Automatic annotation (TrEMBL):
Swiss-Prot/TrEMBL keywords: ATP-binding, DNA-binding, Nucleotide-binding, Phosphoprotein, Transcription, Transcription regulation
Domain Sigma-54 factor interaction span(s) in chain numbering: 137-366
Modified residues (4-aspartylphosphate): D52
Keyword Transport tagged: no
Gene3D superfamilies from the UniProt entry: 1.10.8.60, 3.40.50.2300, Homeodomain-like, P-loop containing nucleotide triphosphate hydrolases
UniProt-recorded name of the protein: Two-component system, NtrC family, response regulator
Organism: Desulfopila aestuarii DSM 18488
Pfam families: AAA_lid_14 (PF25601), Response_reg (PF00072), Sigma54_activat (PF00158)
């Protein structure tokens, strides 16, 4: 007996599908809004979900990442109207089992449901037999959970995998996780940094050479491709591979044959390929900088890693895990994380992603020295200034009007930029030292530093409660 959920605001459609489900002795629940559907999904282990695209409180496709991030996500069947090809495309990209055009016959719905249930039974049986250790990857966000689900599938297969994501998102970590959980785990994981390959030595580096093949070749040397025989070959930054090499490497991927430099006979290597890049390979193909046939070869499975700014709920778990690592490997004492530290880190854009987070954390721990608690103050001044600028811009808006309601005054921003230089290195002075158009900047930063605590705000600014609230109204600010 399986359990189903229908999320659709069309009562008649819900009742039709419910009748079909119950006739097959399955259990069925219904919800008529996205909010109601998510509430039921979070509390029950459904096998199949029928999800309408157009609902009163939003688009059903928007919650697909949250559904797919569930511990054992259900198979999702999208209900979409005829003439909505974009909806069908987005549904498939979101990882749904299938989509049904409304209205559809009972027979069509039944066939789709039965296929989904059969697939789910087989998938659950495989999952029970093959456990995958994903403990090396830290994260609780929907985006990272989706990536981990694909990683588990990749580990159970021998297909080529392409991992994409910004610099510092952990592409090599995911590649190693796939290797360690694959049937090739006992063999080598060989890394080729495509960005460092030089035209003169590329074939010798990849395919090896025989003694005397060129000046300095004093003995036979195995190439990286042969070293990966039986194991995994990881092409890091594959988007940097020169076009001249792409053609050569394509044949290696197709045939698993290659010829070492100076050799009369070809050699073979039975490797599993994982490639990674931070570049848009589809765009590079359009621009003629990457071969389309090579992209087809390496892109059998595609794992997209989200940037850290889109998974801020993972920042704290990442910090805790990294502190434990630093303690075990370098004897650094763990610290308590202050709320203002996490607030600052959650507000940062993280251009360097997880790698940058780890570097910043280690620097902050060194800066904290024997302090037991990590505060925002222990972070680098440059990071805190960037966060302050972004927060004040968000609170004050890009346009600043004068007291008379006239156009924005550039002097306000210039004064503000001077404040940014040392705003974290001293307490804010009383408001009487600020005049005219600087009030809005002062109040915005005051609210941020005091976390909206009215008592702290009044104490620091020396304002009366009534005067403070009149200023809030005057500048359109809120706590």
């Amino acid at each position: 007996m399986s359990q189903m959920l229908i999320i659709d605001d069309n009562i008649e459609a819900c009742e039709t599908i419910e009748s079909l489900i119950t006739r097959q002795s399955h259990l069925c629940d219904m919800a008529h809004t996205l909010k109601g559907g998510l509430e039921r999904l979070n509390g029950n282990g459904y096998d199949v979900v029928f999800l309408d695209v157009h609902l009163p409180d939003g688009n059903g496709l928007e919650i697909l990442p949250q559904i797919m991030a569930l511990p054992n996500p259900p198979e999702v069947i999208i209900l979409t109207g005829k003439g909505d090809p974009d909806g069908a495309e987005l549904a498939i990209k979101g990882g749904v089992w299938d989509y049904i055009l409304k209205p559809s016959s009972v027979r069509e719905i039944t066939l789709t449901l039965n296929r989904a249930l059969k697939y789910r039974q087989e998938k659950n049986a495989r999952t029970e037999q093959q456990s995958v250790d994903l403990s090396s990857v830290v994260g609780v966000s929907p985006g990272i959970k989706t990536s981990l689900q694909l990683t588990a599938k990749a580990a159970r297969s021998d297909a080529n995998v392409l991992i994409t994501g910004e610099t510092g998102t952990g592409k090599e970590l995911f590649a190693r996780t796939i290797h360690k959980n694959s049937r090739r785990a006992a063999q080598k994981f060989v890394v080729i940094d495509c960005a460092s390959l030089t035209e003169s030595l590329v074939e010798s580096t990849l395919f090896g050479h025989r003694k005397g093949a060129f000046t300095g070749a004093q003995s036979d040397q195995l190439g990286l491709v042969k070293l990966a025989d039986g194991g995994t070959l990881f092409l890091d930054e594959v988007g940097e591979m020169p076009l001249s090499l792409q053609k050569v490497f394509l044949r290696v991927l197709q045939e698993r044959h290659f010829r070492p430099v100076g050799a009369a006979q070809e050699d073979t290597s039975n490797f599993r390929l994982i490639a990674a890049t931070n570049r848009d390979l589809d765009m590079m193909v359009e621009q003629g900088n990457f071969r389309s046939d090579l992209l087809f070869r390496i892109n059998t499975m595609h794992i997209r890693l989200p940037p850290l700014r889109k998974r801020i709920e993972d920042i704290k778990p990442l910090i805790v895990a990294r502190m434990e690592y630093l303690q075990n490997n370098y004897g650094m004492a763990p610290k308590i994380l202050a709320d203002d530290l996490l607030t600052t880190l959650n507000s940062y854009e993280w251009p360097g992603n997880v790698r940058e987070l780890f570097n910043i954390l280690e620097r902050a721990m060194v800066n904290a020295d024997e302090d037991n608690t990590l505060y925002s103050f222990h972070l680098s001044r440059e990071l805190r200034i960037q966060v302050a600028k972004a927060q004040i811009k968000q609170m004050t808006g890009s346009e600043v009007t004068s007291n008379e309601g006239g156009p924005a005054n550039d002097g306000v921003r210039k004064i503000g930029h001077e404040i940014y230089k040392d705003i974290f290195d001293r307490s804010l002075p009383p408001l009487k030292e600020f005049k005219g158009m600087t009030e809005k900047i002062y109040l915005s930063e005051l609210i941020r530093q005091c976390n909206g605590d009215i008592s702290a705000i009044l104490d620091k600014s020396e304002l009366s409660r009534s005067h403070f609230y009149s200023l809030l109204k005057k500048y359109g600010l809120s706590l």
